[in-house]
Design goal:
With 144 residues, the chain is α+β, with helices and mostly antiparallel strands. It contains 4 helices and 3 strands; from the N terminus they run H-E-E-H-H-E-H. This is Ribosome-binding factor A.
Length: 144
């Protein structure tokens, strides 16, 4: 479980990294717009795991985007340092990962839609006039 400080730093890093990718360094990613799904920070705030995704992309472009981000790691960290220098003393080391949860969800949706599940047959009552089980008495009533 993350501490409040870790949560605040991860939220700050997620917001500022999104701004870095969209405004400061869009020229590094021509035709690719990396989206930040989440950021997890280590307890000592020294390492940040950044999860990237690209929702509207062709197949295989996610790995291409991850390679571009890793190649430009130094520029991204410098741009991030300029943005958060007033909030944090040390800029955490950024480790990028590809988040493929959207693709996984789409694949599972496709698999589930292809399943042929027959409708359940209504159960026939073998004893139509059977009495319902009696409920136990919880309190004794003298009037009965």
């Amino acid at each position: 479980m993350e501490s409040k400080r870790q949560q605040k730093v991860s939220s700050l890093l997620q917001q500022e990294l999104a701004t870095v990718f969209q405004r400061d360094l869009p020229h590094l990613f021509p035709g690719l717009a990396p989206g930040i799904v989440g950021v997890r920070v280590s307890p000592d705030l020294g390492v940040a795991r950044v999860y990237l995704s690209q929702l509207l992309a062709r197949e295989g472009s996610g790995q291409e985007m991850l390679d571009l981000v890793e190649d430009n790691h130094k520029e991204i960290r410098q741009a991030l340092a300029k943005r958060i220098r007033q909030q944090l003393r040390i800029v955490p080391n950024l480790v990028f990962f590809l988040d493929d949860s959207a693709a996984y969800a789409a694949k599972m949706d496709q698999v589930l839609s292809q399943l042929d599940i027959p409708a359940a047959e209504p159960e026939a009552d073998d004893q139509p006039d059977a009495e319902a089980p009696k409920r136990p008495k919880l309190f004794t009533d003298d009037s009965e």
